[in-house]
Amino acid sequence: MMFRRGFILFLPRLVGLLVVACCSMSIVYMLACTPRGDNQQLSLPRVHSPTVKEGYEAILQEREEQHRNYIISLKKQIAQLKAQLQGRTEQLKNMQNQYPDSLDIQFDHSKPEKAQANLLAFLRSQVDKAEVHSGVKLSTEYAAVPFESFTLQKVYQLETGLTRHPEEKPVRKDKRDELLEVIELAVGSLNKPDGVSKAKPRVYTASDFVEGIYRTEKNKGTLYELTFKGDAKHQFKKIVLFRPFGPVMKVKNENVNMADTLINVIVPLAKRASKFQQFMQNFREMGIQQDGRIHLTVVYFGKEQMNEVKSILENTSKSANFKNFTFIQLNEEFSRGKGLDVGARFWKGNNVVLFFCDVDIYFTAEFLNSCRLNTQPGKKVFYPVLFSQYNPSIIYGHHDSIPSLEQQLIIKKETGFWRDFGFGMTCQYRSDFINIGGFDLDIKGWGGEDVHLYRKYLHSNLMVIRTPVRGLFHLWHEKQCLDELTPEQYKMCMQSKAMNEASHGQLGMLVFKQEIETHLQRQKLSSKKT
């Protein structure tokens, strides 16, 4: 009985001790599992510390302070990450802004920014590697990559492929779609607001497109230069685009004013008064009447037929009220290089575009504009590939009569060929011609001087624009290869003579003319018997 009563009295104390022990163990567990500061340590209230309740409150306050500091630390780290992200974004924007605006280039923003920056840097490096902003030094005349020229309807091409057509409507879908895309992008770029002018902008269309040239460097991309009509006569808009085997990028958008750009046409001549008469008819119509920003320099060798030539020049001057001509007479053996060099150096005015020409050349007013647009002092020289006419008596031999000269100037494989081996007709600024050293005056007679000058430009940092043009023709004439020529010059002359006569097929018809006539006679006899 006493034992039971004692046990009942002791039971509440035991329960109280168990409760205290459980609470103590819970507090120890909580303190052990709570995150600690870098230099903070938690401990239980000691014997001589404040009461247990006050100790708990101090511990809770300390834990709250730790959590508060932890949250502040996380906020600082988030702020730092945001600042870094903002900095990276600004770097990418600056990288994009320092390059020309891209046309319709879309980046996948879900990908890492580094990939975007690398892509942009690669595309930019393709532009830098290609001959877009400046020329590169080349080893030989065969190393230059020629341009092709095109309009809205046709492409004038050097690499004729299986069709062997020097000009064609682009029948291949990829070529047609490519050029249409480029023209559309250029028109869109011209119509893009510049944000500066408050005047109502002009709306450009594809009909404002004049002509373009393009070429592909196999390991870099395709360069396009497109010319559009400007806001006034003799003014143009020029758009330069580059496709680095990816999206087309706008490289340049500039106004080109050619209203005051004078061309000095230099013609070396000896005898050939009748050909000069024909040349002056073309010069008067295209150069004086249609263009009007032109000067003519005739460098004449010897005295034979000189008075006839001077009379033709003076008559044109009077009838057309044209005073911008120079006549220089040299008493020495004809040398084309010497004549062109003397004519170029004789000019005393401001820097001028020089067009080295021959008396058997026909040019249009459009070509004179191409001459201006494709030359730039210290930057570019123009080496057009002209269309060389075959012998009209062979081409039109089956006709009742030979058509007029204007009707003969048609770019077809039956009428002529691109004279891609000739470098004599060229446009460049006089300053570039003088700086490059001019012609080699040791070369006499026909041929060689033009290739020598062309190689000089290829070996320089000037950009050489080499492209077929639709407004420059070499008129057929019988070629005389003189015995005085060196063996190399004579060989070149004979090769040129053979190519000038007719196409491969037309020459074949002449070779097999007897066989063809014999066959026709047999056919007639056979038809009579039946």
Automatic annotation (TrEMBL):
Report the top EC class in one word.
Answer: transferase
InterPro entries in alphabetical order = Chond_GalNAc, CS_glycosyltransferase, Nucleotide-diphossugar_trans
The record's Pfam families line, in alphabetical order, gives:
CHGN
**Keywords in UniProt for this one?**
Coiled coil, Glycoprotein, Golgi apparatus, Membrane, Metal-binding, Signal-anchor, Transferase, Transmembrane, Transmembrane helix
Q: Which GO terms describe its cellular component?
A: Golgi cisterna membrane
- One Gene Ontology term from the biological process aspect of the record: chondroitin sulfate proteoglycan biosynthetic process
The topology of this chain with respect to the membrane is: Single-pass type II membrane protein
EC number(s) given by UniProt: 2.4.1.-
| Localization of this protein | Golgi apparatus, Golgi stack membrane
Q: Which reaction does it catalyse?
A: 3-O-(beta-D-GlcA-(1->3)-beta-D-Gal-(1->3)-beta-D-Gal-(1->4)-beta-D-Xyl)-L-seryl-[protein] + UDP-N-acetyl-alpha-D-galactosamine = 3-O-(beta-D-GalNAc-(1->4)-beta-D-GlcA-(1->3)-beta-D-Gal-(1->3)-beta-D-Gal-(1->4)-beta-D-Xyl)-L-seryl-[protein] + UDP + H(+)
The UniProt entry, under SUPFAM superfamilies, shows:
Nucleotide-diphospho-sugar transferases
List where the protein spans the membrane: 7-32
Where is coiled-coil annotated?
64-98
GO MF terms held by the record = glucuronosyl-N-acetylgalactosaminyl-proteoglycan 4-beta-N-acetylgalactosaminyltransferase activity; glucuronylgalactosylproteoglycan 4-beta-N-acetylgalactosaminyltransferase activity; metal ion binding
Major site of localization recorded for this protein:
Golgi
Please name the PANTHER family in this protein's record: CHONDROITIN SULFATE N-ACETYLGALACTOSAMINYLTRANSFERASE 1, CHONDROITIN SYNTHASE
> What family does the database annotate?
Belongs to the chondroitin N-acetylgalactosaminyltransferase family.
**Record protein name field:** Hexosyltransferase
From which organism does this entry originate? Hylia prasina
